[in-house]
Amino acid sequence: MDRPTQVSENKYRLTGRVPEGYRTVVLQRRADGHWVKKARLRVAKRAYRTDVRAKTQAQTYRTVAGRLRSPQRTVPAAPAVPAPGDPQADACGAALFAADGTRRQCTFADNFDGSQLDRTKWVPQTNFITGDKNGAYACYHDDPDNISVSNGALQLTVRQEPEPVPCDHAGMAPSRFTGGGVSTYHLFSQRYGRFEARFKNKATKSPGLQEAFWLWPDDREGIPVLWPEAGEIDVVETYSQYYLFGIPFLHYNPDDNGGPILGINTAWNCGAPRGVWNTYALEWTPLLLKITVNGVTCLLNTSANLAFQRKYIVALTAGLGVTTNAHAAGTPLPATMSIDYVHVWQ
Length: 346
Fold this sequence. Notes:
Number of strands: 25
Largest sheet: 17 strands, mixed
Structural class: mainly beta
Order of helices and strands: EEEEEEEEEEEEEEEEEEEEEEEEE
Shape: globular
Radius of gyration: 21 Å
């Protein structure tokens, strides 16, 4: 079975191929630890396809043909939508409850329903670069070509400009590439809770693009140490080189030794295909950081490190990549990261 393809807001298409001689396959869904038959699909020219609806939780499917078993594929959970007139709905949508049954309080919400960036919530990024500082790098710009709101989403765009434009980042020469980024710097920060964003990036297999939904320590608290000991929570980074996955990364010392440790501070198997909407969330307590992608747990960190005991701001960025994911001749520009919403609960 191929990876699911989103065909509408809450509908996904499952497709696959089988060897010659099979006329049907059985579609099965994982439920309560067992495989349950959902449908028998007709095979035409060795291929099959069917559409399934996303549910409130992620669903895992496979097909069976004789003794053949297809790879398991996960259809993401549908975004929560409050029922009309729901008295419990708030700015973050339908009521959300913590594991102990208490209702979470919505502390920050932007559904990007207007036509302009709400600058009471967001500060455009302007004083950093993204990409390879010794090669192709993009200057973050506060410009409608890089940061805009339309069609119910925040649009962050990486572009190649006709002529080099100045960089506000100290010591960097003008560049022909620009990027878009925003954060809640000095406007909103929070310690612990649930942080969630739903976004879609440029559908491409070519390297060169990097997008992120991440948290950074609030400097108003007077952080006494430097990065990475100060901490950084990358709920997800998406690289066009790795077009089927989203990659979380937690930065802190000394536990992670400054590098990736699978299952501790990063994961490389979180399915999140480019070009479709994916939902990324962080559940954060004093003892646990849990990152989910489309409702599926992706990373658990129980370090209880001091870096994760302070307030963090929220950031969204779209820019150029580095090293093996650096800008190349095939990098498709302009490339836009569309953010449907950002919600935070305490």
